[in-house]
Amino acid sequence: MKLDLRMPIGLMFSLFGAMLTVYGLVSGNAIYERSLGINVNLWWGLVLLAFGPMMLALAVRAGRKASPGATAPPPPAGQP
Amino acid sequence: MQHVQLGVIDYAILMVYFAFVLGIGWALRRFVKSSDDFFLSGRSIPAWIAGLAFISANLGAQEVIGMGASGAKYGMMTSHFYWVGAIPAMVFVGIFMMPFYYGSRARSVPEYLKLRFDEKTRGFNAIAFAVMTVFSSGISMYALAKLLELVLGWNFHTSVVLSAIIVLFYIFLGGLTSAIYNEVLQFFLIVVGFLPLVLLGLKDVGGWAGLTAKLATVATNAGFSAGAWSDSWRHLNAPSANPMGVEWFGMVMGLGFVLSFGYWCTDFLVVQRAMAADSMTAARRTPLFAAIPKMLFPALVILPGMIAIALHVTGGGLLPIGGDGTPNYNLAVPVMLAHYLPSGLLGLGLTALMASFMSGMAGNVTAFNTVWTYDIYQSYLRPGQSDGHYLRMGHAATVFGILLSVAAAYATTRFNNIMDMLQLVFAFVNAPLFATFLLGMFWRRATGHAAFFGLLIGTAAAAIHHGLVLPHGAVPGLKGAFLGVVLHTYPSEMAQNFWTAIYAWSACFVATIAISLVTRHNKSDDDLKGLVYSLTPRLTDRELVWYQRPATLAVVVLVLTLVLNVIFW
Q1: B342–A1: do the CB atoms touch at under 8 Å?
Q2: pLDDT (tens digit, 9 = 90+) per residue, A46-74?
Q3: Which of A59, B140, B277, B311 could form a disulfide with B315 if both were Cys (CB 3.0 to 4.6 A apart)?
Q4: Does residue B520 sit within a domain?
Q5: Kind of pairing between the strands at B488-490 and B469-471
Q6: C-beta neighbour count of A66 within 10 angstroms
């Protein structure tokens, strides 16, 4: 793969997660009236903080596997 | 409708998303070296990415706004678009059609038609498709700008120009790869942006049981039996028993077989994603991988509409009322976003909405530039140029494809009928196409003349049927009966469309067979190797472990879909 797509996905959702979590912590309770009294920013921020880094971890692991030092693995059969 | 106020955090989320979209285009620019890279991602996309892009490309305005609107208007029956329509069609394209699409090395759907039939069939399809995609992307842009104007009070022109520039930027730099990567990003964004909305909505109405009880009120108020909004199959015995106004045959044949198979199996917009896959197995798995999230999408896109109508009827006017006194169903999803999500998640939800519009647009633009460059420019205008020449043409086609889309968006604002009219014309052109492909791939005797005239006859049959029938309560004109006689009145527009599709498909199918039998074979069996089922060596997938084979995956997908149909029977 040219660019591991899990990298930008992981970065973006980690960033969203952090933004929502922090906003959830500092925002007052008043705005959560419409979300049935639940601080959804905090909760969903934490969910994204689990999802984003997981994607990043997968990308990093795949990147390490793909280039162990300088010897790249042979391309899979059938590929030019 | 009162405008929704966005906070700093909402704008910040939107900006981060734009930065990533543009950043991906920028990062991919150095991989675009040949026209193959630009138009086909160099056939290097892994199956899971191609699969998510496969559903994401279709996840434009129609899906997110339209499915929510249908969920409110017709209830649970909207799920047939998925569990009878899309999923079986996706399994079919993966198992039976992909070997020919991918195996023939055709670079586009029209090019397959040329290899299998002849030049005129390709020309007809390429031109119809190019016009169609430009207008679809224009309509997508129009719908986005209109929605932002209505919900957020943003300036219409600014929205059009901004979305056009962003899409232009990332496709121009990264080509199809960039479009596909952004579609996958957008897939996750839709899930992440809409899931909290669905969870909050369901909690509010008291879970599925509470929703069913509220929807019973909706149904009985409208004069149907209590389950009409919450069951998918029980009320299909007669058109008068359900809000959609269709019976099971029209639904299964019209929506399931003709329209859905026609769309998922022949529309280059989606097929292009699978053609970009990195191997035959990956290409066949692409629609199958896509089918798994796709079958769960009703929960994300239909359910908010159902919750909205339940709250609207039992809780007192959630949806704004339109000029004709009925609720404005198209606003079901945006209204729900504003109703439940506080600043923060609201920004995420709106970003998801905008992402869906933009990827719908990008999907159309990438399909357009490919068909234009390969099937029109290279075939008829300037054949035999260098690869670099066609790559430059692809860049230019991206620019004028977007400019034409902007023009189409403005045409839509000027003539409010243009959208209905075009959708009608596309339905006429598209419905018979699936018959052509079916015969082309599975009957080696089908000839070029037969395919071309079969398509014309099918299109004409659609137009004639539409010209002689009318949906209930409509006046003759664009809605039908433009030939001056009303032979039949359908209970709804939906039913009329399904039957138009059935007639068009049947006419094309019969005409293609008949003409094939009286015309001479224009291709030898040798020419058709790899293009027709009986002349292509079977793929045995022996090198794969049984659970990795596309066939196994297909069975799993079909069983899961059956289970969903039974649960929500």
Answers
A1: no
A2: 999 999 999 899 888 887 876 654 444 44
A3: B311
A4: no
A5: parallel
A6: 11
